[in-house]
């Protein structure tokens, strides 16, 4: 009996000591009992690690809630799946060649403003971010509801090894990161983004070096992009530099600059896309729905930009604002001016196609822009491509444009412009207007428009029902249900 009592007493003391140990607040290990070892190296002069999670002060933490160690540049070299939860993204986090980061449905990632937080998937790396309609994945500002602004953080950049017209790993990605992209693998895979929202991104690293909401650099057709919304981006909402990736169900909501920007030989297909503008937000460069180039110089470098967009709706600044005026005093940011040097400008065209682009557009609806179409010959021969059938605009409807077409960037006149003599002929319609209205193109121009009341997606669907068979919702079915957000400013995360 004495022995039993001694045994029980010892066990009680041991249990008490273990309790004290487990409740201790003096333990510096954020994950006591773990044996995870972080493997460190360097990559291009940056710190690199096979794990991606840390504490707020940069300590290793397998169950941490910070992505990146806090350095401005951090390289992830490994394979890791996050747990569903809320995280803070700090600095420029590179997902290196051979690495995969997987983000589960329902996860929220808040971008740190001070470090211009950005996630950059390098060629050979993969980002797997597959949400669901009920549980989308959200990349957003760290600011509280009611105080978020465009450009609060960097954005999401995907790069791959598909062709562009600058060469293999020869093109520097826009915005400042080190990454070069491009290759010969049209089927290359950079991961998967499904049911994803990207909000209040687009930090300018330097003047004219802004990071877009979602940037594609030579991303291949093996990548899945489906149901992605970019809201309040401080540069373009979506921009493609080369590549062959196919995308479906895209939303560009109240962006700063262009909604869909295609460059450097982008040759993918985009089907079902919606752009909605804020009448008070436009960029100093003058904002467009489409902006499309073959490259910056307008050269004949191949592959040409031959992207094919179908079933797109462009909701311009006039659509839901009866008082809209395309003037600097009216376009004032509506209190959303970012504190990073970005400047306001004017709205321009639903479609600005220039610099030898061979963009193809069909079954598209554009409402309430100052200009419908600009086929710009300042660099290259975009008009020649149109005349020779190397690009097409078919089954497109313009509603309530101030003018159907202009031939020159930042010139709001539907007059024929001669690029050789640099003179206009006010007695003739612009080449852009004439081409758009060729009978063979089966396009439609509806001049009159009365502004409607904005009521979220319901008002967009009402517009779609007025013009069935074209635009983002050709059959009237709402593919935004559950996952999209048309009031991200006031959402509690």
In short:
The chain is 9% helix and 31% strand. It contains four helices and 37 strands.
Average of the residue pLDDT scores? 92
Shape: globular
Q: Give the N-to-C terminal Cα separation.
A: 60 Å
Tell me which oligomeric state these chains represent: single chain
Task: Bin the helical content.
Answer: under 10%
Poorly predicted sequence stretches spanning 5 or more consecutive residues: 1-33
Strand content bin: 25-35%
How many strand segments?
37
**Major sheet summary line:** 18 strands, mixed
Structural class: mainly beta
How does this structure look, described?
The protein is mainly beta and about 500 residues long. It has a domain of about 220 residues. The protein contains 4 helices and 37 strands. The strands form 5 sheets. The chain has an 18-stranded mixed sheet that branches. Strands 1-2-5-8-11-14-20-22-24-26-28-31-34 form a 13-stranded mixed sheet. Strands 15-16 form a two-stranded antiparallel ribbon. Strand 1 and strand 2 form a beta hairpin. It is globular, with a radius of gyration of 25 Å. It starts with a helix and ends in a 27-residue tail after the last helix. The N terminus is likely disordered.
Give a quick set of tags describing it:
18-stranded mixed β-sheet, 493 residues, 13-stranded mixed β-sheet, mainly beta
Write the layout of secondary structure elements.
Blueprint: H1 2-23, E1 40-43, E2 46-49, E3 53-54, E4 66-67, E5 73-76, E6 79-81, E7 86-89, E8 92-95, E9 100-103, E10 108-111, E11 118-121, E12 126-130, E13 137-141, E14 155-159, E15 171-172, E16 180-181, E17 191-199, E18 204-206, E19 209-210, E20 214-217, E21 224-231, E22 238-241, E23 247-253, E24 260-263, E25 269-276, E26 290-292, E27 308-315, E28 349-353, E29 360-362, E30 365-367, E31 371-375, H2 382-387, E32 392-394, E33 397-399, E34 403-406, E35 416-418, E36 423-425, H3 431-436, E37 444-446, H4 457-466
Parallel strand pairs: 2-5, 4-7, 5-8, 6-9, 7-10, 8-11, 9-12, 10-13, 11-14, 12-17, 13-17, 14-20, 17-21, 20-22, 21-23, 22-24, 23-25, 24-26, 25-27, 26-28, 27-29, 27-30, 28-31, 29-32, 30-33, 31-34, 33-37
Antiparallel strand pairs: 1-2, 3-4, 15-16, 18-19, 35-36
């Amino acid at each position: 009996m004495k022995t039993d009592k001694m045994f029980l007493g010892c066990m009680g003391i041991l249990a008490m000591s273990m309790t004290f140990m487990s409740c201790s607040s003096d333990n510096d290990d954020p994950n006591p009992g773990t044996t995870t070892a972080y493997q460190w190296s360097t990559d291009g002069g940056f710190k690199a690690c096979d794990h991606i999670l840390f504490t707020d002060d940069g300590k290793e933490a397998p169950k941490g809630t910070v992505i990146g160690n806090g350095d401005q540049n951090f390289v992830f070299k490994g394979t890791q799946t996050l747990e569903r939860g809320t995280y803070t993204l700090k600095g420029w986090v590179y997902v290196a060649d051979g690495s995969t980061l997987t983000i589960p449905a329902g996860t929220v990632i808040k971008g740190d403003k001070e470090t211009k937080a950005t996630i950059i998937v390098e060629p050979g790396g993969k980002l797997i971010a597959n949400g669901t309609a009920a549980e989308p994945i959200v990349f957003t500002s760290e600011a509280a509801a009611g105080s978020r602004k465009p450009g609060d953080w960097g954005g999401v950049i995907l790069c791959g090894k598909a062709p562009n017209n600058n060469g293999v790993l020869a093109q520097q990605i826009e915005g400042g990161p080190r990454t070069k992209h491009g290759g010969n693998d049209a089927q290359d895979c950079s991961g998967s983004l499904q049911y994803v929202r990207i909000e209040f991104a687009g930090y300018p690293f330097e003047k004219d070096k802004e990071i877009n909401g979602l940037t594609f650099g030579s991303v291949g057709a093996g990548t899945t992009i489906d149901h992605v919304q970019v809201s309040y981006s401080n540069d373009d909402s979506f921009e493609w530099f080369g590549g062959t990736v196919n995308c479906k169900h895209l939303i560009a909501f109240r962006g700063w600059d262009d909604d869909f920007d295609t460059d450097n030989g982008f040759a993918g297909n985009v089907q079902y896309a919606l752009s909605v503008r804020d009448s008070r937000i436009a960029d100093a460069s003058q904002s467009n729905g489409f902006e499309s180039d073959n490259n910056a110089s307008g050269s004949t470098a191949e592959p040409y930009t031959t992207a094919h967009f179908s079933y797109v709706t462009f909701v311009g600044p006039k659509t839901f604002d009866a008082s809209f005026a395309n003037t600097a005093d009216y376009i004032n940011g509506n209190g959303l001016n970012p504190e990073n040097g970005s400047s306001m400008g004017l709205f321009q065209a639903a479609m600005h196609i220039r610099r030898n682009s061979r963009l193809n557009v069909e079954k598209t609806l554009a409402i309430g822009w100052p200009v419908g179409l600009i086929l710009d010959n300042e660099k290259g021969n975009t008009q020649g491509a149109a005349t020779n059938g190397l690009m097409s605009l078919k089954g497109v409807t313009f509603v309530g444009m101030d003018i159907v077409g202009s031939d020159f960037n930042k010139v709001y006149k539907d007059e024929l412009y001669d690029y050789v003599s640099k003179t206009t002929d006010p007695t003739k319609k612009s080449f852009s207007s004439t081409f758009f209205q060729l009978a063979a193109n089966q396009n439609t121009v509806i001049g009159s428009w009365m502004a409607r009341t904005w009521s979220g997606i319901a008002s967009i669907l009402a517009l779609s029902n007025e013009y069935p068979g074209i635009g983002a919702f050709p059959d009237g079915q709402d593919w935004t249900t559950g996952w999209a957000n048309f009031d991200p400013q006031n959402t509690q995360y």
